């Protein structure tokens, strides 16, 4: 079974579509918020923190856009990966459980993708 895994199109669940819509909304909201607040940001922003939580390195405020670009790129990459559950690693994959395993794996990638997005937006 490992060498010839079936390729099955797995439809997204309603929960996954809701998470994706919230994720896209949050990215859009952050872009709008940054544009609105850009003039109030200091020219130098903390880019690294020590173990005590104190900034120990500073950079230009434009680096905020780089972080947003990295987050969006990762989100898009994981969205693409969700569509190909047959390439993931599995334990005990059989013909009887392949569809369930694929659905679980796709759901896991979706939740991880969006949890990182939500966590970053809420704590960042």
**Secondary-structure element order, N to C:** HEEHH
Structural class: mainly alpha
Overall helicity: 55-70%
What is the gyration radius calculated from CA atoms?
Answer: 19 Å
The shape is elongated
- pLDDT averaged residue by residue: 89
Number of strands: 2
What kind of sheet is the major sheet? 2 strands, antiparallel
For the termini, the CA-CA separation is 43 Å
**Beta-strand percent range:** 5-15%
Low-confidence runs: none
Q: Largest beta sheet: what is the strand line-up?
A: 1-2
The total count of helices amounts to 3
Explain what this protein looks like in three dimensions.
The protein has helices at 14-37, 63-82, 98-123; strands at 44-49, 55-60. It is mainly alpha-helical. It has a two-stranded antiparallel sheet with strand order 1-2.
Short descriptors:
single chain, about 120 residues, mainly alpha, two-stranded antiparallel sheet, about 10% strand
Topology readout:
Elements: H1 14-37, E1 44-49, E2 55-60, H2 63-82, H3 98-123
Antiparallel strand pairs: 1-2
Helix pairs in contact: 1-3, 2-3
Q: Concise description?
A:
With 124 residues, this protein is mostly helical.
């Amino acid at each position: 079974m490992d060498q010839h895994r079936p390729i099955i199109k797995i439809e997204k669940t309603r929960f996954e579509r809701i998470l994706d819509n919230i994720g896209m909304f949050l990215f859009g909201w952050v872009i709008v918020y940054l544009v609105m607040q850009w003039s109030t940001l200091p020219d130098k922003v903390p880019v690294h923190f020590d173990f005590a939580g104190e900034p120990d390195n500073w950079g230009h405020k434009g680096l905020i856009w780089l972080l947003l670009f990295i987050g969006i790129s990762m989100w898009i990459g994981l969205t693409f990966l969700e569509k190909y559950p047959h390439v993931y690693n599995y334990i005990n994959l059989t013909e009887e459980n392949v569809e369930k395993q694929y659905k679980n794996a796709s759901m896991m990638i979706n939740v991880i993708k969006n949890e990182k997005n939500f966590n970053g937006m809420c704590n960042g």
